[in-house]
Design brief:
Layout (H helix, E strand, L loop, with lengths): L2 H10 L6 H15 E5 L5 E7 L2 H15 L4 E6 L7 E10 H9 L3 E4 L2 E4 L5 H5 L1 H15 E3 L8 E5 L2 H12 L7 E5 L2 E6 L2 H10 L3 H51 L8 H12 L5 H7 L6 H24 L1
Antiparallel strand pairs: 1-2, 2-4, 3-4, 5-6, 7-8, 8-10, 9-10
Helix pairs in contact: 2-3, 2-6, 8-9, 9-12, 10-12, 11-12
Length: about 325
């Protein structure tokens, strides 16, 4: 199974302990993965879908407990592929269906008429425990989280822009979470891309085992990144050192050929030039350590800069002559 499916499986094995949280989680799952099947005389049936057996078992038990009515389970296949199979939970139309949907804020009744409600029910938005349960239901119904070995991404698909804004507001009600919304193929997606925020969201939904797995992979990813940066830095330094050494060697060869040889250089510059000739592959710090007496790297660099100025001055004199 994918990292996302395994994360949902873990969340599905935990159950809310408060009646209010049971209702909030049922509301979240219905909002993201449920539909109404109208019956006559105010009776309503309920249909829920998921691709994960553990999630189907969780919500079959939860919705049966809340409604007092049985749910049947059937398998629907789309696209002709095994991994496209969906499990559908169905409850026949009954007065209990309408009562349950009113209890979880999906419908309301006014003047004897039932109407569908939108937005997060105020009763579930007030308490932190209910907001967490509502998020669990939304995520188990229409959410996913990418394998952290590949990328950092957690999302929940919304039915429309209004619901997307509600989900974003719900996520952002928790500290340090900053969810965003974008449109993809006509659907609105609420998402997180910051690794730290995804880790926090997994904790909010009680996916603690996968939170630790996420952190382990994140640490490995960051270590690989640091190693690559260090290697790139080392390679760049080696390239710069090689280029500088070659430039110095060419300058020394030019002095020997056209400007009276190294004996014409001041003693300190001559000593540096001779060490560079003897050790063309050495870096500047190594040349500095070889001099007698040894000098600092910056002092050795100053000698080669002076040598360059000397060579340029000698060349200018020859041109004027």
């Amino acid at each position: 199974m994918s990292f996302s499916s395994e994360t949902k499986k873990e969340i599905a094995h935990g159950y809310p302990v408060k009646p209010c949280c049971e209702l909030a989680e049922a509301a979240g799952f219905f909002r993201s993965s449920g539909s109404i099947k109208p019956g006559g005389g105010g009776e309503i049936g309920i249909a829920l879908t998921t691709g994960i057996p553990a999630v189907a078992r969780r919500y079959k038990q939860l919705f049966e407990s809340l409604s007092g009515e049985p749910f049947t389970v059937s398998v629907k296949q789309t696209g002709g592929r095994i991994f496209s199979r969906r499990l559908e939970l169905n409850m026949a139309a009954s007065p209990a269906g309408a009562e349950l949907l009113m209890n979880i804020g999906i419908i309301s009744k006014k003047d004897g008429l039932l109407r569908i409600e939108t937005g997060t029910p105020p009763a579930f938005a007030a308490a932190k425990c209910c907001r967490k349960s509502l998020l669990k239901g939304l995520f188990l119904g229409a959410g996913s989280v990418a394998d952290p070995a590949k990328r950092y991404h957690l999302e929940v698909i919304a039915a429309d822009q209004g619901q997307a804004n509600d989900i974003r507001k719900l996520m952002n009600s928790f500290s340090d979470i900053n969810a965003e919304v974008f449109e993809r193929s006509g659907k609105y997606i609420v998402y997180l891309k910051a690794a730290e925020q995804i880790k926090d969201m997994l904790g909010i939904m009680d996916a603690n085992i996968h939170l630790l797995a996420f952190e382990d992979e994140r640490a490995r990813h960051e270590m690989r990144g640091r190693v690559n940066r260090y290697n790139n830095c080392d390679n760049a330094n080696l390239d710069r050192q090689a280029a500088a050494g070659m430039e110095q060697a060419m300058m020394i060869a030019e002095i020997e050929k056209n400007q009276g040889g190294l004996t014409a250089l001041p003693p300190k510059l001559r000593a540096a030039a001779e060490k560079r000739k003897e050790h063309p592959e050495a870096n500047l710090a190594e040349i500095a350590a070889m001099l007698v007496p040894p000098v600092t790297k910056s002092a050795a660099a100053a000698r080669f800069r002076s040598m360059k100025k000397y060579a340029e001055m000698s060349e200018n004199k020859e041109k004027r002559a």
